[in-house]
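lol ok so funny story. i was supposed to be doing the assay writeup but got distracted and ended up predicting the structure for this chain instead. priorities right. anyway since i did it might as well share w the group, maybe its usefull for someone
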Amino acid sequence: MLRHEFQPGKLIAGAVLLSAGVTYAGDATGAWHVPWFVLIPLVCGGLILAAVVAAVAYGIRRRRSRHRASSENVGAPASSSGSQAMR
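and the output, tada:
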């Protein structure tokens, strides 16, 4: 049993922000020189990619749960049993 569902959008966003932090730290320590305008497209593009992946994963998860719910409803409806059926 899974404790929580896998969310690939958050994984991508974390990886992009981690890579931006490593790039900035490498530039700050003098390991390499990175122009200032490189990090802005890296972060913005990564967040846009993460949003697209999260939307696709949400659509897949929603479609899968809808399909699973429709296949489980094979029995009698709830209103045909119990006290409501006596009326």
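The chain has two helices and no strands. Residues 7 and 58 are 9 Å apart (CA to CA).
back to the writeup now i swear
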